[in-house]
TrEMBL record:
Organism: Bizionia sediminis
Gene Ontology molecular function: transferase activity
The name this protein goes by in its record: Transferase hexapeptide repeat family protein
Keywords: Transferase
InterPro entries: Hexapep, Transf_Hexapept/Carb_Anhydrase, Trimer_LpxA-like_sf
């Protein structure tokens, strides 16, 4: 659902996909080839939220802020399932792990990776290419070229997903039996460990 609020209407590039079960409200600008998953809430009611090109905000994520603040999720930022971005700015091609919480006025540097369930305190400045884990979150090492290549490949899958959703996603009644010779999806992405073996 897309909601106008206080005369601010969200702007969504036609190449992007906002799932019908997501909620985008108010002063939100969504660039090209972005994916917004079901259950995501992007609330530009108290400030502006900009998603630059190629950003994905996955299922059940929240993006919001204190009144009067504005934030940017820079190009190719990747926000994993259930994460909360509250008044924080995300750098280019960074990864926010599942169920991580990034608090107000924090800044995540370009190509950084924040681990699943990490808690990044308000006003924390994470340098670029940092691997961040824990509660409270701490930088534990630098992101290697191989790690960022793996992350980038995963984000590219999400950048292809909007077009696939526009082409093929549709509400249907479920089948009542499993069809004979039912296929499964192709393995197009490896875990980091398997990726590093090659």
């Amino acid at each position: 659902m897309i909601y106008k609020f206080n005369n601010f209407t969200p702007v969504v590039h036609p190449s992007s996909f906002v799932h019908p079960l997501a909620a985008v409200t108010g002063n939100v600008i969504i660039g090209k080839n972005c994916y917004i998953g079901p259950g995501a809430a992007i609330r530009g009611d108290w400030g502006q939220i900009i998603l630059e090109d190629g950003v994905n905000v996955q299922e059940n994520c929240t993006v919001h802020m204190f009144p009067g603040k504005s934030i940017t999720l820079k190009a190719s930022a990747h926000v994993g399932h259930g994460a909360i971005i509250h008044g924080a700015n995300l750098g280019i091609n960074c990864l926010i792990g599942m169920n991580a919480v990034i608090m107000d006025d924090a800044e995540i540097g370009d190509e950084s990776i924040v681990g699943a369930m990490a808690f990044v305190k308000a006003e924390t400045k994470i340098p670029k290419r940092s691997l961040v884990v824990g509660n409270p979150a701490k930088v534990v090492k630098q992101v290697s070229d191989a790690m960022i290549a793996w992350k980038t490949k995963g984000t590219q899958l999400y950048q292809q997903l909007p077009a696939q959703c526009h082409d093929s996603l549709q509400a249907v009644e479920p089948l009542r039996e499993v069809p004979e010779n039912m296929k499964i999806q192709e393995n197009v992405y490896k875990t980091l460990r398997d990726f590093m073996k090659n």
